[in-house]
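Worked example 4.2. Below are the chains of a multi-component assembly; read each line carefully before continuing.
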Amino acid sequence: MNEIFAEYKWIALFDDLDIFIEGFITTMEVAVCALILSLILGIIFGVAGVLPQKWVRCINRVYVEFFQNTPLVIQAIFLYHALPHLHIMLPVTAIGILGVGIYSGAYMSEIFRSGINAVPKGQMESGLSQGFSYWKTMWYIIIPQAKRMILPALGNQSINIIKNTSVLAMIAGGDMMYVADSWAGSNMYYGPAYLSIGIVYWIVCFLMTKCVKRLESKGEVGQHGF
Amino acid sequence: MVSEIFQSSNMLFLMGGFKVTLEIGICSIIFSVILGTIFGIARHLEIPVISTISIIYIDIVRNIPCLLLVLIVRFMTPLPPVISGIAAMSIFTAATMAEVVRGGLNSIPKGQYEAAYSQGMSRFQVLRFIVVPQAYRNIIPPMMSEFTTIIKDSSFVWAVGTEELTGRGMILIGKYSTTGQLFTIFACVALIYFVLNYSLSTLARWEYKRLHANMN
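Applying the procedure described above to all two chains together yields the following structure tokens:
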């Protein structure tokens, strides 16, 4: 145990602290951009999943089933190899954002779809009967009620996005996991590298879990007051 | 030529990787279900020491990436490659399984316990005859969809050089260079994962419908 976490290894780590901080910044950049991308995709495809037109719902199923049933690793490595073949040159972080964003978008669209579906059908019917258009009923009546179910699930998915950014390590993406892996791989100081990035991931995710719990309890309070 | 990809040696090579993926997947499913059930029940019953351990365990593991666990188990323990993959995946998924089990047990109304205790049943009997049969309905479908997560996440062990399906696919890509060949190999690998996971998740959905159809 002493050997794994020997003092000189920690000193080496603190000497190279700046590359770890850079890795952390890359991780957070990718996470935030992927979150935004996945929200956009989630809203588009999630709403597509509840529309009355069958072929639109079909597009939603194909997107969700394909991306939920194949590994993120395959998707990310595919983008990394295939985009240059198609003469699209992107920096690795952008590939990471695309990969994680599209993958999480499938989960997001399921969250939106099931959240909207959970609102009783009568709500839509009574909205329409009062002369609201389909989209107005959606916006003023359905979405505000679906929000309560959607928000906590979105929080959980955001935590998954942070964890999933670690896939960048497999395409040399320069994120925190990649930095730790290559740093420890070169000098064999596994203990301090893994422990310290583990703690950083843990703190970020744990803080988000706490926020999600607060959202959940808020949602419950709102429901009783409804 | 794209058809070069489909020669039998390549396909056998990929199938060898698929076998490792299945090995890791099935073993991790078994271990994580067992561990998750123990931790989930311990938390539900609030058994003193095990309950505290499982709270700490779940809080730690659920908030770190799977890849980190794969790296830690591979490089910081003396386990051989495939076993270390199984260990990492089991540790990672057991935490989610424990939450699934706990959630299922918590979904049973208190009145069920009170009624059972009032009939003179012991704690174990209540669990065995009253709670578990009802909680089963809420546990099995999400547990089965966790299985697809295990199969997907097992591709992370390629990061430490274990040659499972993803790894074998990537090795093949190193041998071929044209765009068509690249797309074909990815399509093959993705298709294998897709067929396996899609059947698992369809089974989970079907099971959900079946269990919830008898509810009333």
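Take a moment to check your reading of the output against the notes. Residues 70 and 88 of chain B are 5 Å apart (CA to CA). Chain B has one domain: 2-213.
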